[in-house]
Specification:
Elements lengths: L1 H5 L2 H27 L2 H10 L1 H31 L7 H29 L4
Helix pairs in contact: 2-3
């Protein structure tokens, strides 16, 4: 099944979004069950925001390390087999990396805004 999804990146992305939404829902459901209500869960998340920030920093750092050490070299090696020697693929990969960093900064900037009492 995964091989057929590799041929259809839109379906693979959609499947990733569905899995992420399901996991997010599972986390919220589990938190609500543990703390009794959504408001108590939100209070607990607010009280532990420092640990959650540390978790996100470690998570993003781990993802970046795996990207630079394992996945990026494999992708660049695969792109080099293109007709143009991978020039266009490297440009697109660089653009994708910049877009991901922009989205990450926007998400974490919003989280900091909320954390500092902006909303």
């Amino acid at each position: 099944m995964i091989r057929s999804l590799k041929r259809h990146p839109l379906l693979l992305g959609l499947l990733g979004l569905i899995i992420a939404a399901w996991l997010g829902g599972l986390v919220v459901y589990t938190g609500m069950r543990l703390y009794g209500s959504i408001s108590d869960f939100q209070i607990a998340m607010g009280e532990n925001r420092h640990w959650l920030m540390a978790w996100r920093v470690i998570f993003y750092g781990g993802l970046a390390l795996v990207w630079w050490r394992a996945w990026r070299p494999r992708i660049l090696q695969s792109v080099e087999q293109d007709k143009d020697g991978g020039q266009q693929g490297r440009v697109l990969l660089h653009k994708l990396e910049r877009m991901i960093l922009i989205v990450l900064v926007l998400i974490e900037g919003y989280n900091l805004f909320i954390w500092w009492g902006g909303a």
